Amino acid sequence: PGVPPHTNRLINEKSPYLLQHAHNPVDWYPWGQEAFDKAKKENKVIFLSVGYSTCHWCHVMEEESFRNKEIGEIMNKNFVCIKVDREERPDVDKVYMTFVQATSGGGGWPMSVWLTPDLKPFAGGTYFPPEDGVHRVGFRTVLLRIAEQWKENKDALLKNSQKILEALLHRSEICVRGQESPPPSKQVMTTCFQQLSDSYDEDYGGFSGSPKFPTPVNLNFLFTYWALHQTTPEGARALQMALHTLKKMAHGGIHDHIGQGFHRYSTDQHWHVPHFEKMLYDQGQLAATYSRAFQISGDEFFANVARDILLYVSRDLSDQARGFYSAEDADSYPTTTSREKREGAFCVWAAEEIRALLPDSVQGATEGTTLADVFMHHYGVKESGNVNPMKDPHQELKGKNVLTVQCSPELTASRFGLELGQLPALLQEGRRRLSTARAQRPRPHLDTKMLAAWNGLMISGFAQAGAALSQQQYVSRAAQGAAFLQRHLSDPASGRLLRSCYQGKDHRVEQSSMPIQGFLEDYVFVIQALFDLYEASLEQSWLEWALQLQHMQDKLFWDPKGFAYFSSEAGDPSLLLRLKDDQDGAEPTANSVAVTNLLRAACYSGRVEWVEKAGQILAAFSERLWKIPITLPEMARATSVFHNTLKQVIICGDPQGEDTKEMVRCVHSLFSPTKALMLADGDSAGFLYHQLPFLASLERKDGKATAYLCSNFTCSLPVTSPQELCAML
């Protein structure tokens, strides 16, 4: 309440993260020429702070240090201070994160880096506490030491920063050496499978101890490995590892059992206590991965989890204009009168709260059983709380419970003498009442920034779920998302993508005064989304836009000397390095997805140079793919698609005909990582016939919808029954 005592120039920005710092006593600048000029003119060190709006430790550092008046004075006197939202400017983030990781052996956010006036880094770290502690030097001390060093030893710092930059340039170079060719898929796939198998947690699934991230890239690799080795013990193990991990995640506290969707990661090995923020990119990828699990297994459990994710996104992360918001925060006020936010406050429960909400006695159960007894037993609720104090260093979750499915339905039912068929309705009623109660709590902060790349991942999630689950409303939602991208995140004059837009006043979509141009990941994830949306809807306009964007991506980012794509385009003097990411993490790296995109683009256009480019990317990364493919599971997966050649599944038929729809449903019901589906509707003047003239020679047999399987311009014999097509696939 009242007028804030300080306001800095971040008040004019659109990014929710930058706006969170607009009332600090620090004289923050956004990344840009004004700050660079000031540093040069006054010969001052630049302090660069990078984070994002739903980052817990970013909030902590802001509260402890950036709101502190004395620390603010030290910063303003000695440094030019710049704030960057890593989600708006991944290019800036990656350059300096490369430095922090190389010099400190770790990385993360908030990232704190000190630069010379010409933007070269010479010192850096992540979170600093405000004052010196037993194990860590405080932020105030670091600031004063660096200011003193700059006064006393400026020449040495400048010389050192030049050496650091040269080392980073050398270290981060990814290119084809000599006549390298794409590595053979058999070795790459086998090594990647073995490395994942060795790091697999047999009990709880996943591929590390703690913290544990969902990493859909690992699961998608395993699905493809299984598809290519279905009859071998290794293939069976790959499938078991992926499905077991997905089940354990869905049962764990990383899955929000009351409000749907998935939190960002688990702080423990058991998927129990999460870091509570929810990211759009996780929801998009996991919706697609659970849909694939359903295609493969036929188990409705996985379909239900996909539906759960899409319900959360439709309700909580969707803009009126049909774009998707970036994230929901981990921290919130426990009650409407609280003065301090706590991590997980929106999501956790005290046992007495649940008892008060679910006091009803349960008919047919052991005498005296209440709905709370059944619910608490099933979801592992304890009277004193179920969070290990070791996983709660700030005592924010003391006495609280994170819901996690502890028992099978059979065990819970038998514990209370219930019929198995009674249990789902009881648990559903419990979840409904907790959801109503939770709606009265103050909500966490919502980051309403809309990013092209993450919107692309979410469109893919809706499109793939719509196809695999035969749910037309999901395909329609994907199409609305793609139309949003066309309206708000692409420049019709140049044909280029923009990085971000924002929810403005009166819920209108706004753009910043200097729109940020799209990066490689924006193109790659949007192109992938448009191919997925075409296969789900068979609307050719999406295909046409995907191919236009692929041409634009080649023009802006391709490295003609060393091959593969740079993450950012040339021509920005403030970027010291043009990097190529070399790790599939929480999101796949752009070059990994670009390989499959190029192969799909070639299938839909007949342009063999795109197949060649896909091979050149694999060649550029071949050393890593040979030795440690576990760091690039999505690219390892793409290696197998490259060597196995994508098959064109062409259905000749009337788009509205029931026979055509049955054929399409058959294709959608199967998981096949090496297919590209297309509809030849007989319109010889249409876009697809123009791209692939050979389609005109494919006929409908006896006037029925007819399917052909084509590869390298040769086609199978025609089939007219869905059963034959399924068998062929």
From TrEMBL:
GO biological process, one term: carbohydrate metabolic process
Pfam families for the chain: Thioredox_DsbH
Residue intervals of the Spermatogenesis-associated protein 20-like TRX domain: 7-168
Domain of life assignment: Eukaryota
Name of the protein in its database record: SPT20 protein
Phylogenetic classification of the source organism: Eukaryota, Metazoa, Chordata, Craniata, Vertebrata
